[in-house]
Amino acid sequence: MANEQKVREQEYLDQTLKQIDLAQLEAQEEIKKSKGSLSDVASGWDDVRVKTSTYSGIVETAMSIRQQQQAIEERQSAKSRAEDRYQTLAKQKEKPYFARIDFIDDAEEKREKETVYIGLASFADDDGKFWVYDWRTPVASIYYDGGLGKVDYQTPAGKQTADVTLKRQFEIEKGVIVTLFDTEEAIGDAMLLNALSGESTTKMKSIVTTIQKEQNKIIRNTDADLLFVQGAAGSGKTAAIMQRVAYLLYRYRGKLNSGQVVMFSPNQLFNDYVDQVLPELGEQNLVQLTFYQYASHRLPRFEVQTLEERFESNHQNEKIERLLGSLDMFKAVRAYAEDLNQSGLKVRNLNFRGDVLLSKEKIQSIYYQYNENYKLSQRLEATQESLIRSLRSQVGAQMKQDWVELAIENLSKQEYDEMVGAGQVRLGDDEVNDAGDLTRLHQLGEGPKERTFASDKQERNFLAKKIVTQALRPLAKRVRRAGFININAQFVDLLRALPKYLSLADYQISEAEWRTYVDAFVASLKEKKLSLPATTIYLYLYDLITGKHGQREIRYLFIDEIQDYTPFQLAFLKFSFPNAKFTVLGDLNQAIFTQDWASSLEEDFASLFDPDKVDFVELTQTYRSTKQITDFSKGLLRDGKTIEAFNRSGDLPVMKLAKTEGQAIDEVKAQLIKNAQDGEQTAIITQTLAEAKALAKELADQKITLIRSENQRLAPGAVILPSYLAKGLEFDAVIVWQADASHYSEENVRRLLYTVTSRAMHRLTLIGSGQLSPMIEELPKSLYKLEDGHAK
Ligand SMILES: Nc1ncnc2c1ncn2[C@@H]1O[C@H](COP(=O)(O)OP(=O)(O)OP(=O)(O)O)[C@@H](O)[C@H]1O
Questions:
Q1: 185 Cα–ligand 1 center, Å
Q2: Was 354 annotated as part of a binding site?
Q3: Hey, whose CA ends up nearest to atom 8 of ligand 1?
Q4: Which of 44, 205, 551, 789 is most buried, judging by how many CB atoms fall within 10 Å of its CB?
Q5: 8 Å CB contact between 235 and 621
């Protein structure tokens, strides 16, 4: 019977493959045809007559050029459509589908049984018969959401119910069905186990064949403005959102493109790790960046605190950090900015050739001459216009100055020619447009002509005007960029005024402590250094004053490892991406930067959204690690009970405690060899970068890559990296270095230890010297094996 089934399924597969072949031939024909017609169109250029002597001639020329361009664009897009189709078909031929469901749709009157095959993309033949359905179609949801029997699924027309009679999973290789099995559950454990027991690669893979029901909820959610996903380490949060992006791009095809989807990720290494998932699913990659990259590229003149500095400076001033990262602070900045409508804007003089051209007082009086109905941004715009006018009105006076005379005398022949030939330049004109205009003039055969002058005086005036205008241009640029606002001084003023806007006592901070902090801050600002919380406040204040409206074109924003963000940062992201729907993922147990207040993060962030538009999904089942590793890691947590290990068995984690550090290093070497022999890719995780560097030196004779910065690439083979760079990643085998009392005693590194141990998929070794870490000592002995560390 089973064999008979396999034969019948193989027949269906053969037919599907045959149809795909036919479709591929058609696509090939199409490509050829559009190539041919492209060259036909290209020869059409000969018919484009360039007439530039009259205005209507110019218009006619422009029109025919445009028509020609359009014809080429159309053919080209037909060609690339056919090429895309060809590529998709080629991919589909390898594995056309991975599952089949049979069901009776309750909405259909006839109640006939339907059979649907599910694959990475849909495939229909010329007659419109669907041989395969894309995993993202509404009907495919049935496959992920339940077992046999009644299953609800969402369609664009609303909820529908189906009666599922068969769920079958396939493994297909090179056109042959290798295995096939029927299941009654949502996704058979056997298939999941199979997917999970493979070895790690340096790249994350797609999980479409084994998406779990809870993950499917995350992937297909389209209602929420804020989708909050809390899940243990390794519970597939990242995997789920990568598939979610693919789903959204499919669902909103034509309306949404991958450039409108942004993901904030924990570090650059992680970006590297996930960058194959979407291409594997036939989609383009989304925009990925870290908060550091986002903030620091906007402030090129500052040294923004790096991940390493942030991690290593942690807890220096916890009360203040907490205040700076709070929503209270966010509101205080807004209130402070609001008050700037009345008074207090800090500006700089606009100097020209060493003299004050427009004084601070003058600029301030312009800024505050507009009535109270003006908002900050309008006030600024009106001030800029007025300042540009003032600059223009200075031209006449400057032209009479001695420096202009001198400049005219010193003009070289080339400079003179350039000035006289290039046409009129007006202060405040956009340079780019000027260049554009010139090019256009050139194209239409009207290049700049040498100017002639009626008199010497006229020539001198012309040159003087040019010279002054050019000299004033940097100032005009500065005005347009609002460079006269002294944002540094404004920021310091905000900090000094802060006690007026919020209660320091709520954060157990005295006024004197605050003053000391602000003084230290001023000193670091002088050195152009900014901590990450300060950077965010700085940007927010700047955006409020200049009326920046954020990036309105971004429709979906994903934030991974949300527990490492402060409420302020999140509120700022919401402000900066006003039209985006947010999907945020986090594991409060892995808060390594923000510590205790991470627990109120969810509430704080949700308070910024309409409560009806906030959805919360919790993932408790973990997939990454073996049961033994998960049980050990969760044991480290004070509150790890809700985490459920997937039933995949492996060895117990081993704690090797050596007498001396030298012996511990020998243990590391021995373990590296063992892991390599067993084909397990190893990551040695240290707490800090300095420790990673020191250990790498000791292991200089081993083949091992030190990952010291987030901008490095993940290398195959063994790696050594500090804890904060291991975020979000996974490895076959992990060695936790210095996992002893000297490094893991304080409560504030408990979550860090959990984070690093949960990176291991198959093998976890903890190596240290001296005393056992109390966090490990208090674990039940059944969760790990304790060995003396004296490697032979
Ligand atoms: N449904 C699934 N089928 C197969 N593999 C899965 C599934 N869900 C997750 N995985 C695998 O489990 C591992 C962990 O997933 P992922 O990295 O998404 O977890 P995470 O919740 O983001 O973890 P962390 O918080 O530790 O970064 C990955 O290798 C992923 O491919």
A1: 20
A2: no
A3: 236
A4: 789
A5: yes
For residue 584, give every residue at least 6 positions away whose Cβ sits within 8 Å of its Cβ, in sequence order, or none: 226, 227, 228, 229, 558, 559, 562, 570, 605
Residue 234 is labelled as binding a ligand: yes
464-502: b or e for each residue (b if 16 or more CB lie within 10 Å)?
A: bbbbbbebbbebbeebeebebbbbbebbbbbbeebeebb
The 3-state DSSP class for residue 77 equals: helix
Q: Report the separation in Å between the CA atom of 169 and the middle of ligand 1, taken as the mean of its atom positions.
A: 21
Our measurement of the distance from residue 325's CA atom to the centroid of its chain's CA atoms, rounded to an integer in Å, reads 21
Tell me whether strands 581-586 and 226-231 are parallel, antiparallel or unpaired.
parallel
Q: What is the pLDDT of residues 729-768, one digit of tens each?
A: 899 999 999 999 999 998 888 889 999 999 999 999 999 9
Residue 345 · residue 485 · CB < 8 Å: yes
Q: Is 576 in the pocket of ligand 1 (CB under 6 A)?
A: no
Residue 231 in contact with ligand 1 by CB distance below 6 A:
yes
Residue 340, both tokens: 């700037």
Quick one: angle between helices 413-421 and 456-480, nearest 10? 80
ipTM score over 0.95, yes or no: yes
Q: What is the residue type of 703?
A: K
Q: Count Cβ atoms within 10 A of the Cβ of residue 721 and give its class: 0-12 exposed, 13-18 middle, 19 or more buried.
A: buried
Angle between helices 376-399 and 456-480 in degrees, nearest 10:
160
Q: For residue 636, which of 747, 753, 534 has the smallest C-alpha distance? A: 753
Binding site membership of 730 for ligand 1 (Cβ less than 6 Å): yes
Tracing tokens 């049961």 back to the chain, one arrives at 627
The Cβ-side half-sphere exposure at 45, using a 13 Å CA radius, reads 6
- Contacts for 135-144: CB closer than 8 Å, 24+ residues apart: 135/208, 135/211, 136/246, 136/247, 136/250, 136/251, 140/116, 141/216, 141/220, 142/101, 142/103, 143/99, 143/101, 143/118, 143/167, 144/186, 144/187, 144/211, 144/212, 144/213, 144/216
Residue ranges in 444-531 assigned as alpha helix (H): 456-480, 487-501, 511-526
Rounded CA-CA distance 748/744 in Å is 9
Are 778 and 750 a contacting pair, CB within 8 Å?
no
Residue ranges of the chain whose pLDDT lies below 70: 1-2, 35-79, 108-110, 185-202, 313-316, 421-451, 590-599, 789-792
10 burial via Cβ count (<10 Å: 0-12, 13-18, 19+): middle
First-to-last alpha carbon distance for the chain, in angstroms, is 57
Between CA 145 and CA 154 the distance in angstroms is 11
534 CB-side CA count, 13 A: 25
Residue 592 per-residue DSSP state = S
Q: What number does the ligand 1 atom closest to the CA of 759 have? A: 26
